[in-house]
């Protein structure tokens, strides 16, 4: 399957060969022990746990000043990542007796059409790990539990038997998706940049870099196996322009999950830090996470 479970369970030494649904108790035990960062049924929430902690700390810092943060999400999947970010922000909102919408404005840029994006709000069942699942046992499989620190961001849907993101988070995303002034579907990041966009406090651009240039490789990309010595001028300009959308003191979050990179963001880090001026404008605060320096102009990028 090439995901968290096949790597950690199906091909893992200790649990090698667990493929049958009748062995699900063993898999459940391992799955629960490995939360957060759990992946199943082709969806993944809390993929980069350190991102959530950084965003929560950033929002808490801003709440002291009464400022609302602007979050730009580039590439949305089926909203798993944005749901996770909002769960982290809701945790701060709950702490201070605030509503989620009072703390964050969000904008989306997504190449796919709106109808192709189906928000996924359920964590699923542990049964999703199996290569050969038994439908009857699937009904009995327990729901994946939310991370301990985020319990107020979830509720148990008794009918489906799965934990889902809180109604406040679902309503926030549904409202966002229906607002064409904030949710830009069918738009490439290159087109978004060309329109001339303002700056955001947080720009999240995960698993996007490897697709810059498109399927036809209209310009070279270090992740798409271009020819040796390929000209990366256009690629670096696009990445530099994405970085310029981050306000002073704001966060840039970039990860790449491809061969040559890893889920700690180092594939993206190598590319970012090789771009002239990037390390002059940003401080690294975690794997794949950078903070824009205050007092450094965009001219250095």
What does this structure look like?
This protein has 301 residues and is of the alpha/beta class. The chain has a domain at 47-121 and 166-300: Vaccinia Virus protein VP39 (Rossmann fold). It has helices at 4-10, 24-33, 49-63, 80-95, 100-103, 135-140, 167-177, 189-195, 233-244, 266-274, 278-281; strands at 39-40, 43-44, 69-74, 104-110, 154-157, 162-165, 183-185, 200-204, 246-253, 282-286, 289-292. The protein has a seven-stranded mixed sheet with strand order 7-4-3-8-9-11-10, with helices on both faces. Residues 1-21, 36-43 and 260-265 have low confidence and may be disordered.
Summed up, what is this model?
By secondary structure, this protein is of the alpha/beta class. 34% of the residues lie in helices and 17% in strands. The protein is globular, with a radius of gyration of 20 Å.
Binned strand content: 15-25%
Characterize the main sheet: 7 strands, mixed
Assembly state: single chain
CATH class of the domain at 47-121 and 166-300: Alpha Beta
Describe the strand arrangement of the main beta sheet, using strand numbers. 7-4-3-8-9-11-10
**What structural class is derived from the secondary structure elements?**
alpha/beta
Tell me the Rg in angstroms.
20 Å
Low-pLDDT runs of 5+ residues are 1-21, 36-43, 260-265
- Total helices: the number is 11
Give the overall shape: globular
Mean pLDDT: 78
CATH topology of the domain at 47-121 and 166-300: Rossmann fold
CATH 4th-level superfamily of the domain at 47-121 and 166-300: Vaccinia Virus protein VP39
Distance between the termini: 40 Å
> In which range does the helix fraction lie?
25-40%
CATH architecture of the domain at 47-121 and 166-300: 3-Layer(aba) Sandwich
Along the chain, the helix and strand elements come as HHEEHEHHEHEEHEHEHEHHEE
Number of beta-strand segments: 11
């Amino acid at each position: 399957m090439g995901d968290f479970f096949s790597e950690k369970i199906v091909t893992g030494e200790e649990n090698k060969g667990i493929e049958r649904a009748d062995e699900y108790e063993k898999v459940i035990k391992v799955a629960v022990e490995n939360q957060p960062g759990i992946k199943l049924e082709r969806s993944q929430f809390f993929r980069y746990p350190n991102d959530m902690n950084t965003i929560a700390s950033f929002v808490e810092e801003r709440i002291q000043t009464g400022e609302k943060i602007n979050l730009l999400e580039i590439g949305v999947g089926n909203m798993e990542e944005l749901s996770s970010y909002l769960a982290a922000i809701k945790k701060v909102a709950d702490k201070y007796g605030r509503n989620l919408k009072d703390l964050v404005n969000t904008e989306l840029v997504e190449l796919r059409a709106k109808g192709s994006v189906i928000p996924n709000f359920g964590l699923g069942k542990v049964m999703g790990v199996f290569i050969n699942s038994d439908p009857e046992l699937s009904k009995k499989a327990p729901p994946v539990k939310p991370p301990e620190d985020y319990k107020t961001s979830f509720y148990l849907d008794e009918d489906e038997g799965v934990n889902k993101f809180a109604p406040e988070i679902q309503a926030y995303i549904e409202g966002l998706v229906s607002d064409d002034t904030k949710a830009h579907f069918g738009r490439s990041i290159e087109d978004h940049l060309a329109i001339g966009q303002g700056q955001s406090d947080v720009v999240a651009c995960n698993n996007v870099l490897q697709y810059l240039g498109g399927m036809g490789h209209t310009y070279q990309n270090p992740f798409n196996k271009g020819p040796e010595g390929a000209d990366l001028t256009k690629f670096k300009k696009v990445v530099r322009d994405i970085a310029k959308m981050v306000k002073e003191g704001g966060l840039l979050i970039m990860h790449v999950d491809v061969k040559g990179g890893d889920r700690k963001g180092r594939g993206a880090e190598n590319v970012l830090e090789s771009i002239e001026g990037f390390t002059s404008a940003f401080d690294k605060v975690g794997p794949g996470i950078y903070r824009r320096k205050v007092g450094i102009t965009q001219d250095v990028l």
